[in-house]
Write a structure and sequence with these properties.
Blueprint lengths: L2 E9 L2 H14 L4 E7 L11 E7 L3 H12 L4 E9 L1
Antiparallel strand pairs: 1-3, 1-4, 2-3
């Protein structure tokens, strides 16, 4: 049975962690099917926090490696959903 995983990542300080996150996402781009990122933006303010939503393909071993790399980034929180189709 095929599995699809959706990950939500809360970045508490986008300015500090953006470079690390981009490098990490690029390193694992072979399992990222889709990516959506957003943060609050207005004329007065650009939020330091941000959210990234990822849809992942791949194997459980690839997901474990990705999770390990995510845990090495300070200032983020990760939530997971797993669907079997």
């Amino acid at each position: 049975m095929k599995q699809i995983r959706i990950i939500g990542i809360l970045i508490r300080d986008r300015i500090k962690e953006a470079g690390k996150m981009q490098t990490l996402l690029s390193a694992h781009n072979h399992i990222i099917q889709s990516r959506l990122g957003f943060h609050e933006l207005s004329d007065e303010k650009c939020s330091r926090t941000g959210i990234i939503l990822l849809t992942l393909n791949g194997t459980s071993d690839q997901w474990i490696a990705f999770d390990k790399d995510l845990k090495a980034v300070e200032g983020i929180e990760v939530q997971n959903m797993l669907f079997e189709i």
